[in-house]
Design goal:
Elements lengths: L17 E10 L2 E11 L4 E5 L6 H9 L6 E6 L2 E2 L7 E4 L11 H11 L4 H14 L15 H14 L4 E5 L7 H18 L2 E5 L3 H7 L2 E5 L6 E6 L15 H17 L1
Parallel strand pairs: 3-8, 3-9, 6-7, 7-8
Antiparallel strand pairs: 1-2, 1-4, 4-5, 9-10
Helix pairs in contact: 2-3, 2-4, 3-4, 6-7
Length: about 260
């Protein structure tokens, strides 16, 4: 089922499509990616999954402009990616918070780098913190927050700059399963409101199916696009018990059968 290309929600920038064309990348003698083609529609939620070491994170970093491709190109909207762009935010697996800064200051950091004046910076950071459910924790330091709360701060920092594209590298990998499920629902709620273009790297089949419009499966290294699977589950998913349905189980099992053949 093709994903919609919805317009931007009020107060948000319109989402942008991403086009990955014949991207290849090697690190010394190790070929990470070969001729990868991926097209992400504006406002789509797409997941990347595959065996460990297949190049998922490398591909995400190339999309973000953090790592250059050896061959091929990536475009976000009309911009050819040659480095990080202001239309894009990245949420990392390890939170990447400044340990000496409060949650408020951590969320303000990206705005500071973009030259936003202090008053506007503070207001936008407070709004992003409230949006991820951490209102009241603005003055807490990372060491005072649980892993799930730290990841919420990382997400708030990414949202504060109002990106048109959100790239997420296994953002729930280091938090417990209960917190992970709550976070997934909260992320879907935010995505439903703002309809940003989201690309998620994950190892979890259930997570990929639950969150995504489509799932791109990469082959073992060197990574290539092995298959792209549609996820025809109705939305909003966070409002119901989608995980308990036979269709959800069927889709997860189908993804597992694809991945099992790649092991």
């Amino acid at each position: 089922m093709a994903a919609r290309e919805p317009g931007a929600a009020a107060g948000t920038a319109a989402p942008l499509p991403i086009t990955v064309e014949a991207v290849s990348k090697a690190f010394g003698a190790v070929q990470a990616l070969v001729d990868v083609d991926v097209r992400v529609r504006a406002g789509e939620f797409l997941s990347l999954i595959g065996p460990s070491g297949c190049g998922k994170t490398t591909l995400l970093k190339i999309m973000a402009g953090l790592v250059p491709a050896d061959r091929g190109r990536v475009t976000i909207g009309e911009r050819v990616v040659t480095g990080p762009g202001q239309e894009c935010s990245v949420v990392f697996q390890d939170f990447a918070l400044l340990p000496w800064a409060t949650a408020q200051r951590n969320v303000e950091f990206g705005l500071l780098l973009r030259g936003v004046d202090p008053a506007a910076r503070a207001a936008r950071a407070r709004g992003a913190i409230a949006k991820v459910g951490l209102g009241g924790f603005e003055n807490a330091y990372p060491a005072q927050l649980s892993g799930g709360m730290q990841q919420r701060v990382g997400l708030a920092r990414a949202l504060a700059v109002n990106p048109r594209v959100l790239l997420m590298d296994e953002p729930f990998a280091s938090i417990d399963e209960q917190t992970r499920r709550v976070f997934q629902d909260d992320l879907l709620g935010l995505w439903s409101q703002e309809r940003k273009t989201v690309v998620l790297v994950t190892h979890s089949m259930e997570e990929a199916i639950y969150l995504s419009d489509r799932v791109v499966v990469l082959s073992p290294r060197p990574g290539r696009v092995h298959q792209t699977l549609d996820v025809p589950l109705p939305r909003p998913r966070e409002a119901g018990d989608v995980r308990a349905t036979a269709e959800f189980a069927r889709l997860v099992d189908g993804l597992w059968k694809v991945l099992r053949k790649l092991q």
